[in-house]
Every structure is written in C-alpha cells, then in structure tokens.
Amino acid sequence: xxxxxxxxxxxxxxxxxxxxxxxxxxxxxxxxxxxxxxxxxxxxxxxxxxxxxxxxxxxxxxxxxxxxxxxxxxxxxxxxxxxxxxxxxxxxxxxxxxxxxxxxxxxxxxxxxxxxxxxxxxxxxxxxxxxxxxxxxxxxxxxxxxxxxxxxxxxxxxxxxxxxxxxxxxxxxxxxxxxxxxxxxxxxxxxxxxxxxxxxxxxxxxxxxxxxxxxxxxxxxxxxxxxxxxxxxxxxxxxxxxxxxxxxxxxxxxxxxxxxxxxxxxxxxxxxxxxxxxxxxxxxxxxxxxxxxxxxxxxxxxxxxxxx
Length: 308
What we know:
alpha/beta
C-alpha cells in the first residue's frame, strides 16, 4: 500500500512545471493550484453510457484516454464487459463499472474476477447500482468482500462517495460504508480511490472532504464533474430510468438538475477553479467527467481549457 503522505500528495504527478502565465491563472487559485487543475483536466476520465448514442460519441474520445464504462440494470454487466474489451482493443485505458446488485453470487464474482485477470484489467469501479431487486448482493461492501478474496489481478478499485448526500441513504450510512470500503482495501493490500457524485457546489465539496479527512479518510479522490452537456438532451436522457447511475441520480436529485438547467453557460471550470487549491491540498488526484455520451462538446471544452 502507498503511504498516506503519498496518497495526499498529488503533486508527484505534476513533476517540475513552470508557473502558469497570468493569462492561464484565475485570481482564485495559486500557481500550484492552477498547475494541478491543468493536470486534472489533461488526465480526466470520460464516463460513457451504454446507449445507442455511444456509437457517434466514441469517435471524439482522445486517443488512449481513460474511459469509464458504466453499468446499468437495463443493459447488464455483460454489455459493460463487451464495451470494455472493445475500448481496450482500441488502446484506451478502459475502466469497467461493476454494479454489485447485478452480481448473482460468489460463483458469478469468481467469473468476473477471472475475466478481469484474463483481460489484464488493472482498474475497476464498483457501485451499488440501481437494480430495484438485487440479483444476489445487496450492496458494494458485501460484493467487494468476496471479490477481494479472488484472484482478480487488480491494482486499484474505485468506489462512490456522496458530498451532496444520497436521496435514499442517510449521510451516516454513507460515511460508514465509505470507511468499510477503505478498510477492505487496506486489509487486501489493494489501492483504492473514491469518485464523488456529480455536484455543483464547491463549498459543499470542500466542507465534506475536509470533514472526512479529519475523521481519517485517506483514499485519493476523483472529483465527479458534469461535462459540457446539451440541456435538452440531458432532460430527454434523464427521463429514462435505469440507464446508468449518473442519470438515475439526476432523476432523484432536483437540486442538481435545477443547478445545471438554470446556468446560462455551464463551464466545468466554474467548479474546478474555486476548488483548485483545495484539490491540491486534500488529495484530489483525478476528474471523473460525466459526459452523458456528449463527448464532442466535453472534449472541445477540455482542449480549450488546456490551450489557455
């Protein structure tokens, strides 16, 4: 396992860089914070959803970038596995999502572990999932307990975190589950991370992360950020339940929907800039970009941000 000091020092990825010019730095961030924000944008992971719109969207993905392949009750884990294999064959850093509530039993877990190892997959993201009736496991912790006892071949596993609460689960239950996952990773000798839900309030994210760090949470954080998404298309997609955790979350969280829909011109930097120094200080090592398959506009924003 890496030490806490290394976990909370994301600057190790930056190397020696020149301070950004005044034109590339916002008054709200320090030179090191601006460098760190640029690194987060450069290395972000694009989340994609297994829908028909993916065929047109995937051509806009940057070559070799991290691609987070979601898992939905409508499509099942098998579709996530197939898409992951496709992205791997095309040279992408594909990260499959496994929904715990779609895994049937220990034998199914062992089959999934064998698939991970056979495809030399080093990173996995595990969610509880949206299935109303679980196939076997009821939550992430119980599934992870069995998965970590298999010959899985993984180096890192990601789990979810909720700075803005969850519509169905209490904050204390979320806190306990997060620390249970951290303990499982520590006991198994596997590095973990958490990805936050989509959130639009920098102050809320900072308050949550500082509180968790103070209580002993050491996992690196991947900040969940909404991509540049057409609002009409998002509403159309969000009306369909069961097509991915991100969309299901939006369907239940009116505050998040309202925030996105009422902003005249949404820019992910509206969240990243106020948090740049906090992200650097508190161990935010990556950005998880919710694209809703609108990769072209999100990639255009990424390129424009990096060119400043």
